[in-house]
Amino acid sequence: MPEVDAEKCDNCRKCAHACEFSAIAAIGKAVVTFHDLCAGCGVCAYVCPTGAVEEVELRVGEVTSGHTDSGIDFHQGRLDVGHQRAGPVTTAVKRNIRQGCISILDAPPGTACPMQEAVDDSDFCILVTEPTPFGLANLREAADTSRRLGVPCGIIINRDRRTWDRIDRYAEQEGLEVLLRVPEEREIAEAYSRGETLADARPEWRDDLVAMYDRVAELVATQPSSTS
Ligand code: SF4
Ligand code: SF4
What we know:
Layout: E1 2-4, H1 14-18, E2 24-27, E3 30-33, H2 43-47, E4 53-55, E5 61-67, E6 73-79, H3 87-95, H4 113-119, E7 125-129, H5 133-148, E8 153-160, H6 166-174, E9 178-183, H7 186-193, H8 198-201, H9 206-221
Parallel strand pairs: 7-8, 8-9
Antiparallel strand pairs: 1-4, 2-3, 5-6
The structure holds iron/sulfur cluster (2 copies).
């Protein structure tokens, strides 16, 4: 986070003009920062001609890590209560990812900075939606965001009832693939509420999940810019 050395500042206001988040402002002869608004991008320090902006550490959350018995790494980012910008926490989580292994990032819902930070630089984005008007509206925004980031995406329809086809129509129109349909079943919902995975609750779904993984790998491999 930026901190301004008033001795070095010549009040040129370049930092305030450059900040897209209005997190640094020149008020009279003083330059003030608003850490709650700051995304920690470092642009203000970059544009400051006198070196008056220093980047200092500010705790906004924590990252915890662990491993499952089967060797899967698990990293969790938690934003401290009272802070609004989760982007730096997401960035910190991503720094923990081991290079060269398959990584699944569970992004928060919506299309705000934390989602974009999680999706950026990914090989593929799986958008999980539900067959409702609200789900479709969110899906449209998320698919647009993913594409703007240059990340190809596909869809999982959760709680699928097969009675509402607007998600399918949207997918067809946009050339997006529906990778999996998880039906609306009480047994599955109860398993989720106990913290069980779909594969644990319904072992007969394992083949479908593996098939989805294979399909995503295939789609990633056929992307023009893919390096995987
Ligand atoms: S680090 Fe980025 S977001 Fe924060 S004040 Fe500077 S320019 Fe604005
Ligand atoms: S860019 Fe640097 S010198 Fe200019 S107002 Fe901001 S802190 Fe001061």
